[in-house]
Fold this sequence. Notes:
single chain
Amino acid sequence: MAMRTLVTKNLTKLKPNASLHSHSLLNLNFSTEAGGLRIFDRELKRAHRDRAAWLMRGKKDELLDSVAENLLDRLEDCKRNFTTALSLGGSGEAIRRLLKGRGGIEKLIMMDMSHDMIKKLKDLETNFTDDISETCFLVGDEEFLPIKENSLELVISCLGLHWTNDLPGAMIQCRLALKPDGLFLAAILGGDTLKELRIACQIAQMEREGGISPRISPLAQVRDAGNLLTRAGLALPSVDVDQYTVRYQSALELIEHLRAMGETNALFNRNPILKRDTALATAAVYQSMFGAEDGTVPATFQVIYMTGWKEHSSQQKAKRRGSATISFKDVQKEFGSGSIEDH
């Protein structure tokens, strides 16, 4: 049986009778209008996640677990509890399973745009025995967040926000939903993800069709992540990157894995037809360019981790420009006359 292997990482109780519609944190009339540019087909992505809910049923994914674990590790660096939290789409099952009391969460909302994914999460809830006293399940869209302002202390999004048409807008809505000094944690796929597949697909299309059509969705670049946090109005922004390499028996197994994760192409202006000759040529080019001696092929997944806080008076703030009380000349006199380059 074909197996995939995660080989490298470079750089880390359902409450009975709980009602979604009566929960004090929900506000079904609240939304921020997304930008007019439509890059992704959100209805198609909903269908992808419905399919992924069934393909992943009863299975654990090592890649998703690694990303979720790394994201949740950041909660252990915080010397405080987050009583109310929202898990926003993406790898919600891995987040819920691996949470294990971290963050001191008492009330948790699990939200996804897929009805089937929410049903799966609800069915799994009885398997967890941590300190969370209330878990609610909500079908909702990250682009129109149905959560009241200033109602949450923590928002976690693990591999979901990169499918939004207005990523800054979605992050702004997350900030608005947070209470002052609330924490925003997110992991999104970065621009180097599936770089091997992009190259193989472009070469195969040129050879078989004489041109290139978009087959892999565009993703944010690492250099943009800090600006995204700043544009969203989040304080103390922090960004770091991990790169995972997963080895597959073939390019076709990679495609099956992407389907199981709900990560297949959802471009609004995509070409819905992939010719058989092009698909076979893509697999052949992939194998010839990137295949290892043992016959496996690698796939790169670049993950960008973003951390930000809603502003609060207790947080550290940068000093006003020009407010320094000591000059570099004074420092030089104090510690020696050598230039900075000498040290």
